[in-house]
Amino acid sequence: MTFPTSYQTCGLSVGLPRGFHHRFWNVDGGGGITIGDGTRGLRDPAEWVNDRNRVTLSVSGPSGDPRKLQFPITLNELEQGSGGIPYWEGGGFLPSGNQGCEVAVWLGPNAPAADRSAILSVLQAIKPT
Fold first, then answer.
1. 16, 6 Cβ separation under 8 angstroms
2. pLDDT in tens, 25-47
3. Closest by alpha carbon to 63, among 42, 89, 96, 88?
4. What is d(CA 36, CA 87) in angstroms, rounded to the nearest whole number?
5. Radius of gyration of the chain (CA)
6. CA angle, residues 23, 28, 32, in degrees to nearest 5
7. Within 10 A of 73 (CB to CB), how many other CB atoms are there?
């Protein structure tokens, strides 16, 4: 899938589907981008579970995971949240080994199927810049 807009963060290109929103953020030691079908653009994944009707994807750095990121990134590459929560997170270093990134995905169980599909397409389209 191609996206009308993409943004660079953490050495990666992240697409933005039509109708979705984005928010850049930074904190001590790193920052990133959050995209989703809601207007809030929450950074903290702990807040995502309160919105069962939305999907959200976040890319940030730095990562402490020593693995190399494999592209395309799929949910199978990420660890699923405990207790069956529809949340996945993981990361690693770019193939060049010089940039660590974290990726997190929330698929609200009541979110529209088209939004769930769009956010999974974003995940699979993430690539190094």
1. yes
2. 876 666 889 999 876 655 666 67
3. 89
4. 14
5. 13
6. 25
7. 24
Is the pTM here over 0.70, yes or no?
yes
Q: Is the dihedral of CA 53, 59, 61, 64 positive or negative?
A: positive
Quote the tokens at residue 52.
Answer: 């069962």
Q: Which residue type does 57 have?
A: L
DSSP state of 119: H
For residue 108, give both structure tokens.
């609200």
Joined together, the tokens standing for residue 28 give: 């001590």
ω into 109 cis (within 30 of 0): no
Helix, strand, coil content of the chain in percent (nearest 5): 20, 40, 45
